[in-house]
């Protein structure tokens, strides 16, 4: 949640930020009204309680029965007033909280103002897009040719947008996992296998339920649980209501888990193959750090994502999201988009975001530096969202005969340098 003190000081900044993110800025005026009323009610309650305590002491010390009865009546009148005001305060406080969590995290100053993904900035490209002297096959045709991707049987079992990875397909995912583990453990990240079901309150604290976010989630209302759409959603709340010592930061994790998404609003898009599916596995990086190191940590996460794709020799471009393409929690976000030959365009493969102190305020995660206590900054970044790098490998490394070269960095785990047609 945003800092209410900052909102009072500069409401226009937050209105502009909300508008630039495509959300309704009118919420901010409502929050300020409730905030003002809340402070007025608290002041009244404190004054009444103080007066009640004074009168109670006078009752205890009074020896005049007439005076005592008068004092007791005044105490009763105050109690009636408190009985009227205190419920109002609870209602105002609840309304304030419900509205305040809908205010999005303001984009950082270096983020371009834009309406949607058409206005994102391409920062740089790496590698040359593949050019073939034959008509390239798409990843699904190659996957079915080698019997390593099976969407037809998955559809029988689970429905549309599920898939089986088999044989070399499964080995390729595990090779990517081993490669990520090797790189990230050397970088000092702590490996974690997180739960994939979390409380709705935890998901709300991460800032993903507002603005229609719940529509893309699998929610178990009976149990009050949500299936995670990415490992970060269960890693972030791991330290809720805790205080780090500054020397413990940055605390970096990488999680590996299954992820689940309804893909709401994507009907008709990428229905072929395994680019946009309901279930997939993912290696996700996460960091808790100090505010002054937040921007540096974000660039570090981006450099790791580039390092992984460069090692796979997959051509990509780095894209910086404009304000209108940022989710509510993100203050800045980069996407790495891999070249997909059969689509003749770059497609998102990984991303990294900083949420500054937006999530840590909601989760009450702080750090201590001497006597000073402040909120940490929280960042996330994808190492591999397994299906998509497999798509990129199959399409970029295919040969005319249908075989697929395996990137050199993965060959020691695959035990081969090529996937041959059966």
Topology at a glance:
Elements lengths: L3 H6 L1 H10 L5 H36 L3 H36 L20 E6 L12 H7 L3 E2 H7 L6 E2 L2 H19 L3 E3 L4 E3 H6 L13 E2 L4 E3 L4 H4 L7 E3 L5 E10 L18 E11 L4 H19 L3 E5 L11 E9 L4 E10 L3 H6 L2 E4 L2 E4 L1 E9 L1 H10 L7 E2 L5 H4 L3 E2 L3
Features:
Helix Hairpins; BirA Bifunctional Protein, domain 2; 13 helices; alpha+beta; 422 residues; elongated
Task: Report on the architecture of this protein.
With about 425 residues, the protein is α+β, with helices and mostly antiparallel strands. The chain has two domains: about 5-100, Serine-tRNA synthetase, tRNA binding domain (Helix Hairpins), CATH 1.10.287.40; about 115-420, Bira Bifunctional Protein, Domain 2 (BirA Bifunctional Protein, domain 2, 2-Layer Sandwich). About 40% of the residues lie in helices and about 20% in strands. The strands form five sheets. It has an eight-stranded mixed beta sheet with strand order 1-11-12-13-16-10-9-4. It is elongated. It is an enzyme of class 6 (ligase). Its main location: cytoplasm. One of its GO terms (molecular function) is serine-tRNA ligase activity. Homodimer. The tRNA molecule binds across the dimer.
User: How many structurally independent domains?
Assistant: 2
| The CATH top-level class label of the largest domain | Alpha Beta
Distance between the termini: 55 Å
Query: Which class best fits the helix and strand makeup?
Result: alpha+beta
Low-confidence stretches: none
> Judging by the overall fold, what is the CATH architecture of the largest domain?
2-Layer Sandwich
Mean pLDDT, all residues: 93
Keywords: Aminoacyl-tRNA synthetase, ATP-binding, Coiled coil, Cytoplasm, Ligase, Nucleotide-binding, Protein biosynthesis
GO molecular function: ATP binding; serine-tRNA ligase activity
Enzyme class: ligase
Binding site for L-serine: 230-232, 261, 284, 380, 382
